[in-house]
Structure formats: structure tokens, C-alpha cells
Prior knowledge:
With 391 residues, the chain is of the alpha+beta class. The chain has helices spanning 7-18, 49-59, 73-83, 90-96, 99-108, 158-168, 225-242, 274-282, 286-294, 300-306, 372-384; strands at 2-3, 24-27, 40-43, 116-119, 136-139, 149-152, 174-178, 183-192, 195-208, 212-219, 247-256, 259-266, 313-318, 324-331, 339-344, 351-352, 363-368, 386-390. The protein has 11 helices and 18 strands. The longest helix has 18 residues, at 225-242. The two termini are 40 Å apart.
Amino acid sequence: MILGAGRGQVDLIKSVKKYGHYAIVASIKGNYPGFDYADECCYVDISDPEAVLKEAKKLKIDAITTACLDTGVASLGYVCEEMGLCGLSQKAAEISGNKLLMKDAFMRNNVNTARYKKISSASELVNITDELRLPLIVKAVDLQGSRGINIVRDKEDLIPCFEDTMRETNQDYCIIEEFIPGIKFGTEAFVFDNNTIFILPYGDVVFRGKTNIPIGHYVPYGLDEKLISKVKTEAKKAIKALNLNNCAVDVDMILYNDEVYIIELTGRVGANCLPQLSSIYYGIDVYRLIIETALGDDPTEYFVSEKKHPTPCYAKMLYSEKSGVLKEIINNNRDDENIYEISYFVKPGDEVRKFTNSRDCIGQIVVKGNTLEECKTRIDSVIDNIEFGIT
């Protein structure tokens, strides 16, 4: 059973079938592309653990997993625990889906992270700058994709930002934490039987709006050996703090004054082409690791046996600077073995929104090369050769 039928789950669904398994795609009804690749569709709210467990038992599934999506992680952990399947635990899923529980776990386990406080009402903000230093970040604890996040640089903006976050969240509280003015980056990792198979730092390409929104990633990320060691240490501490096991892990980090800080992490593979980048870089198929793990098979041997010389690679999301209706897509790029993927999330006749968050992306590009600089030059050229006619 694959939780989710969106664009982020399509490659996982295809891989399940590629490796000879029966793919049951679980999601609410809708025009989701994953349904087109399913052997069987299961219409269920994947954010409802009890509902997913009921369907999983009825269908007598052998394994359950997801990719690039937080919505079904709680259900994934719950079903794994209730049915004795291989995957992250219910408790780990619960903590990774709530930023307050996560921060509490970080503090108990001495993970480098920003100081924070739980906030339930505007009145609690009156003296907050006596405890935490400006600038601050107000965060919804239950949302993803940069939603419900506001940066506060001036004290008078505290209450408006708090109110904006509370309009977005489904909880009656949020957190406020100190803003660490460093360089944001991420790390992909994979854990099986409490052994970390790999830890791969990656760079972020961001769109600068109300907050910085990731619109691309690249590997390798240029860190010296000392910083790589710190990344691995903090990533392992954070993974242990949440008791994440038998799953892919996506970690958000900040580098500031030669120290590594953990922002957050979750027990699933990262979105926006991170599975493709990890696969290209290591010369393996990350989706195969996910599938083998869900089936209870140790994926370590496959990773080690297939691992090749690291290959630099780069991914960017495509987006529009205006809203309208898409009339045509013109791709003037020639065939090139170093263009790993060009895909579109829209087709002529679809409505396109001006980019404000990751849900507004209209396509993605992944390239590889001999050096990172070569990859960056190549991907910019590929983007320049694609035209979207929007009216």
C-alpha cells in the first residue's frame, strides 16, 4: 500500500510495480496522477490512521510506505505497529509530525537546535523578547511546505504574524523560536535496523518570498570534512531523538558560525526531486531501498553492491511569475543523456497560479554532470529553452 496519489508518489508507485509487486494506492478521491499507475485504488483519508488501518486489514497488505509527503506518516506508523509491518513506529511518526514534540525531543537528547517556546495566545507574546532574541520565527506545528511560517524582525509584528500562523494551523497553539541567521541546507538519510545506511548533505535553491521556499536542490553540498562530521553527528542524534528506524529520513539544517543546527526532520524521503538526486549521486535506486525496507528485507547489501563513483546532480522546480491559463509548452532542448528528467505537472488548458508556495510548481528538471558547476550551467540552459504560454 502506497499512501498518497500525488506527483510526489508517482515514481514510488511505478517502482513498486517495476520490482514485481502489486501497488495499492491509497488516497482521497480526486484528480491525482498516482491513480493512473495503480493496480488497485483505495479511497481513504490517509491522515486518518484508523481508517487506513481498516482498509489495510481488509486488503491484507504485506507492506505500507509513502514518499515525499507528510500527510500519511502518522497512518504509516500506526499501521506498521498494529499489523507488525516494517517501518517507523507510531510514536516516531507522531513526533516527526508535530514540531513542538520534535523540539522537546531535541532538547531531551542534546540536539543542536534553536531556542523555542509554545504559544497558545497573543497575550503570551507580551514579554517573549525577554526570553528569546529577535528575529524570531512563528511556526505552525502541523504543516509542511513553508505554510504557517512567519519571520518576525520587529516586535510590533509579533501579534500579526502569530495571528497569521494560527489561521493556517489546525492546532490551538504554535511555536516561536529564535531565527538562526545562517545558511539553510538539508540532509537525506536512510536507516534500517537502527543502522544508518547513508547520510547525504544537499544544498537548497530558494525562492525569496515571505519566507525562503525551496525550489531546487543539488549534491554534493560543499562542506569540508570537519563540517561533514558535524552534520553526521547531529543528524544521527536527531534520528535517535525521534527513534526513527526502518525508513528514509529528510533533515532540514542550518550552518552558522561553523556549527550545525537541526531545524526539523521526518521519517520519509524528501520531496522536490531528492529521491532522484540521491539515486543519481550514489548510483542506486532510492525507491528500491524504500520498498525493500517496507517488505522487511535488509536493503544494505543492495546499496553497497550498487554504489558507484558519486555523480554530481542538480534539480529545480519550474514555476510561473503570473497566474493564468496555460496555452502551450514549448521545449526547445535537444536530447541529452545528462538531462535526467524534464516533467510537467500541468497541461494546456490548466489554470496556473503565480508562485507563492511549493504547491504552485508546474514542473521539474533534473540534470547530472561531471562537476556541480557543470550541472548548474546545464540546468539554467535547460530552463531557458522551455517556454510556457500563459494568458
